[in-house]
Amino acid sequence: MKGSQAIIKSLTDEGVDVVFGYPGGVLLPLYDVIYDSDLKHILVRHEQCAAHAADGYARASGKVGVCIGTSGPGATNLVTGIATAYMDSAPIVALAGQVGTSLIGNDAFQEVDTIGMTMPISKHSYQAMEPSEIPQMIRSSFYIARTGRPGPVVVDLPKDVQEGELDYPENITIDLPGYKPTKKGHPMQVKKAAELILTSKKPVILAGGGVIHSNSSDELQHLSEIIGAPVTTSLMGKGCFPEDHPLSLGMLGMHGRMSSNMMVDECDCLIAVGCRFSDRTTGDVNKFAPNAKIIHIDVDPAEIGKNITVNVPIVGDAKIILSHLIRIISQTKSVNNHDWADYVKSFRTSCMPRLSFDDIPLKPQQVIKEISEAVTDDTIVTTDVGQNQMWMAHYFTSRNPRKFISSGGLGTMGFGFPSAMGAKVAMPDNDVVAVCGDGGFLMVCQDLATVKEYDIPVVVCVLDNRYLGMVFQWQKLFYDERISQTKLKAMPDFVKLAEAFGVNAYRVERPGEMKETLKDALNSGEPTLIDVMIDPNEILPMVPPGCGLTEIVGEYKVERENPGEITYQHSAKETGGD
Amino acid sequence: MDKQRSHIISAIVMHRPGVLQRVAGLFTRRGFNIDSITVGPSEQDGLARMTIISRGDEKVLEQITKQLNKIIEVVKVRDLDPEGTVIRELCLIKTHATSERSRSEIIQYANIFRGRIVDAGPENLTLEITGTPEKIDALIDLLRGFGIKEISRTGPTAISRGSKTI
């Protein structure tokens, strides 16, 4: 068997049925095998989209996503997508072509040091120097990508290695003496955590992406309910706990819900599960959860104590540890945090953000409200990066894990659309909606050709304000309104742009139109773009960098039905918890 | 803030190309200080031992060992206790030595430090010395007066005392 055939056989043996890629000179042997293979290959229009699509595929399905790029520029174009997956712990395997082994190091045509380049942004990387290494390398790559803390693995495949002969082994053993992820939490630590929870009066759970990776949403909800602890999430954790649950506080952090930021400030015990305390989540670490003892559950020991000093660290798989905690706590009948839970519920109701606006141009809150009304619990939404992302994170109600996909760590503009494409390919029975900004979408708009060619019916909502909104907002708030290079003066007509690709497109300008247009688009079963003209001057309330989580600037508009005005600076403290 | 001190980190790694780059890259990327790094084969086939000297407080050191452990090709990591560890470095020093007097003085110093003359020319002597980095520093200081032409140091390598292994 040839190396290239072994690559495809290895992928198929791993259960891969679809790959996202872009061919090139050194990949000719591999693509020659793809020509008559059963493996579905989706030809993207830019390698970055292949990596993001594999990422979206992985996050939506929990399976490993695969992308392929050629040597040199193919590999450099994959880099942004690999780094995005790395920061958000998404399991992907990136296959990169490489010049022949005899040419490596000679600055050959389309040669780049892919391994060196991706070392800091991948969980692991391999370079095959012999065809016989391929089966074990690919098996190990998938194993590493999906186990422990998931992440991207890069496999560099020189052309002659693809062409060389090998005997495909019957049994492939994974030999990784340096890789043994901890699954079960240390029993003493779990016991300590249970004791801390049982003695706390005001517990809060902070759930991150790890809850989604470990499929432990049910356990999390169970724990929250038996101890009366409200749940806040990081951006990556959004959806792991139903956000319409009375104990849901919404997202925490710089652009978090007031309910989250205030309750974390007030809690006496913070149970952090599968999150890494990023600066966007914590604000000033010295002012973070000042009254709380912190329990940190994470599969990656290096995350514990990295950003925040914790009282009870537990390394292991969230699902196993949460179940263990629930077992211990259920045996004790002394949990009584009703007062706290009731207080949290009423505080939460008092500061529900206002969503309804009848202004023209449209307010983003109104648009997101209508998106919420048009989609179901099974709909997967992806976001781009910037204001569109934070509006979605703040105002959109997510109820299920793996249904809210966003580039959190790296903050990659251009992520929303291709990740939606990947999510739709992974989950063809679920509706998929990408919410993008006009800046980010324009970075990847060429892949409208891909959704058209393969009939991938995603709906792209472009929140169109002709500004790079997030940076524009910061310039207005913190740089004396010196609007430097954030006005997008010449932009395409997005409806015509989509139509040029043969993709259906509509423009939305008035309240009420978004819901109907989106419903129709989803029902049409065809890829669709909706250009939504929004007000560029709507500012999202935020915690300025370096401030504590309660120091929110910008008007926090609350739902009108709720009595009284909220003065968020002091409300939590004055109402009192006990 | 905890006090900064020098740490001796001993790591067993897979003996493969690129491992050194992964380890060195990690130190640069995470802003960890690195004083020296030595690598060589270990007692087991396919595994190499790295000795890394790094400075930092306890929190930084904890991160260093955890981050090193995350590298798939790193098998074991241990922060060695300086009290219970044998530390040795090899150093070659090429000095000016033209006069008879300076030549004999240099040879005497070499003897005091249990070093050896490993090469000699009409205008130079080359010394070999092994020992702790402090001992080597001391000899280098003494030889400066004669004019040092070249120094080549390996950086410290280390192993724990007694039957303990990492």
From TrEMBL, chain B:
PROSITE patterns: ACT. Residues 8-82 form the ACT domain. The gene is ilvN. Pathway: Amino-acid biosynthesis; L-valine biosynthesis; L-valine from pyruvate: step 1/4; Amino-acid biosynthesis; L-isoleucine biosynthesis; L-isoleucine from 2-oxobutanoate: step 1/4. This is Acetolactate synthase small subunit. CDD domains: ACT_AHAS. GO terms for cellular component: cytosol. Coiled coil: none annotated. Keywords: Amino-acid biosynthesis, Branched-chain amino acid biosynthesis, Transferase. Its EC number is 2.2.1.6.
